Amino acid sequence: MAQQRNLTTPTELSPSVSSSTAFRKALPSAKSIVIAGRGPAGIETAGELGEYLNGSAGWPSSKLMNPKVSITVVTSGSEILPVFRSTISKKAETYLGKVGVTVIKNVRVKTVTPNGAGTVSALTTKATLTLVNGKTLDTDLYIPATGMTPNTIFIHKTLLTPDGRVDNNASTLRVDKAGPRVYGVGDAASYARPARDLLLASGKEESSIGEDRVFKEDTRETQMVPIGKSKGLGAAMGYQLPSFLVWLINGRDYSLWTTGGLWSGKQWAKES
Length: 272
Fold this sequence. Notes:
Blueprint: H1 10-26, E1 32-36, H2 40-54, E2 70-74, H3 86-98, E3 101-104, E4 109-113, E5 127-131, E6 136-139, E7 141-144, H4 196-201, H5 206-209, E8 223-227, E9 231-236, E10 239-241, H6 243-251, H7 259-264
Parallel strand pairs: 1-2, 1-7, 2-3
Antiparallel strand pairs: 4-5, 5-6, 8-9, 9-10
């Protein structure tokens, strides 16, 4: 289940593809881009666009002066990438500065004119953003990257929570309302691997598989955010990761190397 809404029907898919094509064509002529949001989606986008359009400041410069394209990240938070500790968030700002990205903090976007700018149907529409402090930003491209909409439009409403996520059990991750052997995992579920009843259904003896494996969320600092072509910030189980390792695991191909194992099930084949 996708972490953001994907347009899946033929009538919806065509505008999405055409808008993406239009966005790519608009990039070379854009002189200003504003991204609203401080999470990985917004920060990764800012870093990729920054390095693609502006290049990167050479050593030992800490900031790219006079970038070709003005790229601005706007967030209502006091820091970007809130999952991380302050030192990592500040390093992310430094990396963004090297590719010509400016971060405006502690202020949110109040209104966008024209209405709908930045959505699929108006992806390349020039916009004026009014911030809550009264200031305005004019931009050639506006990218709203705040929050997410789960891709659950194909699931019956009785199985969903009010915010559109799959209503699953916090301890077992089962979708209890859907019947046995149905699980909801990932961002589209209300709780984000236990599979005891699947083993039972496959013919295993109950005595051989033990009790239910109860899910307990690991709340330690864990996230990886690539910035540009060769850098990134990351932490795993509370330990900070070096920039090169973030690039190696995620940034070089955004973890596409894991696709084969995920699709085939081999990633979990040996898990007991």
